[in-house]
Amino acid sequence: MTDLQKLTIGKALNLGLRRAMEEDPKVLIMGEDVGKLGGVFRITDGLQKDFGEQRVLDTPLAESGIIGTAVGLAVRGFRPVCEIQFEGFIFPGFDQISSQLAKLHYRTQGKVKMPVVIRVPFGGGIGAVEHHSESPESLFAHIPGLKVVSISNAVDAYWGIQEAIKSDDPILFFEPKRLYHSGALRAEIDVAGPPQKMTSSQVVREGTTATVVAYGPSVKVALDAAAAAEDEGKSLEVIDLRTLSPLDLGPVFESVRKTGRLIALSEAPSESSLTSEIAARVQQECFYSLEAPVLRVTGFDTPYPPAKLEEHYLPDLDRVLHAVDRSLAW
Fold first, then answer.
1. Is 322 a catalytic residue?
2. Average pLDDT, stretch 46-66?
3. Mean pLDDT across 37-41
4. CA dist 185 to 9, 57, 133, 154, 265, Å?
5. Helical spans, DSSP H, in 214-273
6. Where in the sequence is the signal peptide annotated (predicted)?
7. Mean pLDDT of 160-182
8. In the structure, what pLDDT confidence band is assigned to residue 196 with cuts at 50, 70 and 90?
């Protein structure tokens, strides 16, 4: 039996959470305004009404308390899904994430599982104030014991959140907030179909001129740049990383050995970042295939700017195409 629905990323997440809660009564959702309001982005809309206040919990404004409580619940056999309202609010909970959540499985030699999912709306482009548009994913990818995921489309949103909830490992699940309700990114999903895995990188557009690797909100930018480049006779291969830790760079290596060029794209600042790691690993594995240095198109190494300046900060189609031209001119 099939049940095809055309969904935005936001609606796909909502239905994925609903299906996970229906299948396992140990799944709980907790966070600021996730209940009656349905979350500031309405991702949890209707879930408290249908599953009750014991399973969809409105919490105090205390990220350290949210994560600390989730750790205790996981020890007792529950599967908490925590929402961090905006990515910039996650740092009061950083100690619990890095010192407890990431380490308990290892510290107990596998006796204690930590099936905790932390949903993190991230990235810019929504005209928000300070601490509402950041990209801290590299900080968490650097911590052993955590899995870090970033979705870019509705299909991965629906299946990915369910896969994360079923995992016995702690997972940070980064969601591109400016794309939540984009009608242009609606996708047809068989919501009653068999699960789809998202543990590997994925080639989302094939090409031969250069490779562009991206994740989260930057995947759409990469695809837009590839469409524009085609008008200039250039064929860009676009790869969506999907899982940021552990990184699956096999498809990236294979692509670079074909194209000879790589542009790594991300909204995050460039220094000590995921794009740094990608550049280092690609030159290590594909040195003799590279026709030009790996180039990075990123946010700048500054705090995220006021909203009226963010269009100058965020990597866009023109900056990607400029990097392609620089690579080809090498």
1. no
2. 97
3. 97
4. 7, 30, 20, 7, 19
5. 218-230, 250-259
6. none
7. 97
8. confident
Please determine, for residue 1, whether its predicted confidence score (pLDDT) is greater than 80. no
Cα separation of 115 and 80, whole Å?
7
- What whole-number distance in Å separates Cα of residue 100 and Cα of residue 94? 10
The side-by-side arrangement of strands in the sheet containing 210-214 is 202-205, 236-240, 210-214, 262-269, 295-299
pLDDT reported for residue 2 = 80
Q: What is 25-85 written as a DSSP string? A: TTEEEEETT-SSS--TT-TTTTHHHHH-TTTEEE--S-HHHHHHHHHHHHHTT-EEEEE-S
* Dihedral Cα 121, 126, 131, 137, nearest 10 deg: 40
N-term to C-term CA, the chain: 54
Task: Considering the candidates 132, 181, 312, 322, report the single residue annotated as catalytic.
Answer: 132
Mean pLDDT, the chain, integer: 96
Q: Which pLDDT score is estimated for 194?
A: 86
DSSP symbols for 262-307: EEEEEEEESTTSHHHHHHHHHHHHSGGG-SS--EEEEE-SSPPPPG
SS3 call for 208: coil
Residue 228 clears pLDDT 70, i.e. is over it? yes
User: Could you tell me which residues are beta bridge partners of residue 213?
Assistant: 239, 264
pTM above 0.90, yes or no: yes
Instruction: Report how far apart, in Å, the C-alpha atoms of 273 and of each of 87, 144, 211, 251, 305 are.
Output: 16, 15, 19, 20, 19
- Where b means 16+ CB within 10 Å and e means fewer, 81-98 reads bbbbbbbbbbbebbebbb
Q: What is the pLDDT of residues 106-116, one digit of tens each?
A: 999 999 999 99
Amino acid identity of 48?
A: Q
143: helix, strand or coil = coil
List, in order, residues 6 or more apart from 119 with CB less than 8 Å away: 13, 31, 43, 81, 82, 83, 84, 161, 173, 175
Please tell me the predicted confidence (pLDDT) of residue 80: 98
